[in-house]
Design goal:
By secondary structure, the chain is an all-alpha fold. 69% of the residues lie in helices and 0% in strands.
Amino acid sequence: MENKTLEEASEEQILKTEVFENGDSRKQLLARSRYLLYKSREKWTLSQRQRASILFAQYPDLEKAYGLTDGLRKIYNQPITKSVAMTKLAHWFRKVEEAGFTSFSTLRKTIMHHYRDILNYFDKRSTNAAAESFNAKIKNFRMQLRGVKDRSFFLFRLTKLFA
């Protein structure tokens, strides 16, 4: 809206944009709030808390979406057992259904489809990130060679480079 107002304003007109109590315009509020939405509430600075209160007052749906995201994040950051995690995820699923966001419903369906594999994370708190990273390195190495003709030599080079 601010960009459109700037385009329509002539030189004689005095441009008046909405400025919030922290000094941000609406455009600045949205741009500067992006990073606080990636963090949990406990890690916000004082200015981020103030900006978040303004943002959530202006956009209540954004607050609901942030609450759902933060709730899922907290489930994974707590040292809980598999059975407790299953219960907490079920409560989170209920909140997602009540919120009615289609993107969260898609995430809920994905989690439900891979429920057992996801809950295995709570056994030893480990993921397959190391294997995925190594797989990406192999693909990159293979791409640099523009394909593999001699498989045994390729595996030999992989073990020498990455072992």
